## 1
Amino acid sequence: MMKKFPYYPGCTLKQYPKKFGIPSEESARALGLEMVEIPRWNCCGAVASLTADDMMHQVAPIRNLIRVQEMNDEGLVDNEYRLVVFCSMCFNTLKRANMMVKENEAALNTINEFMDREQDYKANVEVVHFLEILRDMGFYRLEDMIKKPLKGLKIAPYYGCNLLRPKEVGIDNPEAPTIMENFVEALGAEVIDNPLKSLCCGSYHTVGGHKDIVAERTYAIVNAARKAGADMMITACPLCAFNLDDRQALTKELHPEFQHMPVLYFTQILAFALGLEDKAGLEENYVDARPILREKGLMD
Amino acid sequence: MSKEKENDMKMITVYIMGKAYKVPFGLTIMKAMEYAGYRFIRGSGCRAGFCGACATVYRRKGEYKLRTALACQTTVEDGMYLAQLPFVPSNRKEYDIEELDPKKNVLSEYYPEINRCVSCNTCTKACPQELQVMDYIQASIRGDYKLVTSLSFDCIQCGLCVVRCPAEITHYHVAQLARRLYGKYYSPVPQHLLDRLKEIEEGKFDSEIEELKKMDAKKLEEVYVARDIQKIPRGEVAGE
């Protein structure tokens, strides 16, 4: 029997399904967790608004949370108010908006009054990252379900900012997180500690006129992982994944001696370890992870 | 209209640009304004709810909300405040559909302001066609041409969404670009249309056309009435 969760994909999982959406949804399914996409979801808000009286930018995230109430009303999920998110950025934005209205009744009332064609948000939804679902399920149980343990593979987790900060929103200790390390261990791989695992990846500079900032960050972060002995890195944030993987092209231009390293989205390596090799989207990354997987005898 | 006839009619009071007028009950906003003496040289078109020219703003007695509608499709109520929009000077980009690369998010490239959408849903509330306008803008941010096409298909381009949007998005031009991209690059090509085009190019109908050109109006009418009409059973689509 599949356990059904309301699921918020966000734009990146949908726009690049082979690399993000399919590995995430299929891995969950293989673990007995059915991700039921919110009907008619809208943008998460992308960046949490820090202005205390700016209610307009809270409308988008709260509207998505109202859809979770509707899913329960309509029986698409069974009394399940935990909204599962894979993208760290969507997770951060949705959770912060949710926290804001839970703590500020006046703000909640204003937003409910504004959205007079929707049912009121009752502040009863909980925004959770998929890694939290795995942790709550028990990483030892995940370990039991792995079809292809990643024996001999050295993986350096990379957190970035949105999974950990601010600490009220973060899914783990912002200074010394272990959740992704435990995840990597459950897959049967060896955990490599990257001292720069929560250094900023350069974020939105990647779309502006300062791509070099991102390329330099990538240089520092990937080199630190290599120095620590990693074969590859994983991250839960699609923007970090883009910056650390695709931006390696520019890093190489700026630093000809730079050595490429594969950077996978965490559900890509999860799908692979669950035996869903054809659903892992390994052909989608800029730096191909397949040679190292073959070298380790994990792939034909 | 004779004075006696007017007395028989139920009259109501509406306020056109702030001034009170007595108009007969049951008229559309457009006809009520004409009854009061206004003459439309813009902001009026088909008068049947299809062309989208007569976007209008009104308020009902006792309400705080400004409502939007098509003036030719909405009947007046007592105490209504009315104002007609002659034109929406919205931003429309020029492009050559042949030169666009649909694999990129063309909508975001030509109309980057779609990314300013905060999902306030004001556009959806403004739409006289009752389309899910916000949903198609959200789909356009993701480059989902197919969803934009299906959600916006009944758009009549009245411009009311544009007038109301706090993010200054030009919804209907974005949707039109999406439909063009979907139509050109993704929707299946109908074989019967290709076959017919080929027949036309090969001159299969040239002699018939020449014959029709020579006919007078009366004869043309006879031919028209007597023409073969393809019977399409209910629920089926021609050409399938």
Note: The mean pLDDT of chain A is 96.
## 2
Amino acid sequence: MTVPPPVLTATNIRKSFGDREVLAGISLEAREGEVISILGGSGSGKSTFLRCLNLLEVPDEGQIAIGDVQAPLARNRHGRLEVSDSRAAARLRTQTAMVFQGFNLWPHLTVLQNVMEAPLRVHRRDREEVLATARSLLERVGMASFHAAYPKRLSGGQQQRVAIARALATNPKLVLFDEPTSALDPERVREVLALMRSLAEEGRTMIVVTHEMAFARDVSSRVVHLMNGRVESSGPPAHMFGADASPAFRAFLSPAAL
Amino acid sequence: MEEHLTFIGSVTAQLVRAVPVTLLILAVSGVCATVLATGLTAMSVARSPLPRLIQRTWTFLFRGTPLILQIFMIYYGFAMVPWIRHGILWAAFRDPVFCTCLAMTCCCSAYIAEIFRGALAAVPRGEIEAGRACGMTGFMLLRRVIAPSLIRIALPSYSNEIIMMTKSTSLASTITVLDITGVAQQVIAHSYRTLDVFCAAAALYLLINATLSTLLTALERRLDVDRAPTPLAPIPPTLEPLS
């Protein structure tokens, strides 16, 4: 059995905001079909790390590759790392997609237009083909009957399901989820998690920053625990949620027990 | 009484003939100021400090001085500058309508740029990040994500500025332009019926502004997707209604 190729390789990612070091050297490799849950307390750097992966944040140190394409990061004359080729960075981002905590649908476009926007405008795919994909995605997330509605009219859960359809519309190699359920009430959390679980089951490569322990335990193939900007421990969920888990991660899971 | 109505009727007819002059000044300076303001807004968010400094200085100067002084400086002041007076530019600067349009373009662009700048800052970051995250850059991001939100945010204040501009066009009358106000003063000069004439002129400005504000409000409503009802319908097999 061959090991699937890496979809994402992040090496020694460091990032500081002012004097505060948020990421103190994190490396992560995601292979095709892997679902990686990134857990950690607030301020542990997990969202920042995720946002470095598609260059929404530029790391101070480190390398990122999607597939075998290196992210265009180079030092400027002050020695700071910056995006050296914004076109190449944009091309790299077209291989990924992101689902945000605050949904971030485009309010002036309908549900269907939101889903069709990137494949149509950025990837310049054929309109009929894009429409067919968008239709089947909206059906899949249960939002087909709302295709003509504007985002503001939808509930949070509905908006997030549309945002997931939008993320999948370009058929990305990697989907990044930045706390996708944190802005939802428990009822809506369930519908979004069920959808994410079905994506995981069809073999999507996903990196999920989340506080949903059940999702991390039951759905992900690997759990990464960040603490103070470092990978404190990582491994398959059976190990991480088992008896040999690191004390720090166990403490994180049940802070009240300490 | 009948003589009174006849007088107002004939004055109104004279004033109406001056409406195109007022509208011309408004249209030219409105369009030019908006284009210039767009450039100034871009400068205000430039990475290098020089464009930002130019935008701030422009706003400081043109927002901080009275429009009527700017009009006087351009019309009377530039006539004193030899290289303008005797150069090819004189053909433009001797024309009071041109001078009014130029002064209003400079002045109002400073205000409109501030409106656009505020609206740009108010475009939700998340919408822009969603655009960048799917690979949009530069012009596409501006056109497909930033501008639609920016226009919706800016429109109420922008409409207000256009209404203010309509009224400011009357300053052209101080440098001999025969716009609505200019003609009104001319009529008063030989009829001495001040109140009647100014009332008729005011009515025309009201009419212009009522029309403008109706149009701008209609545009605002048209762009306001939050008011749109939520249609529940299956996706049609083929699609036309995309933007």
Note: The two ends of chain A are 43 Å apart (CA to CA).
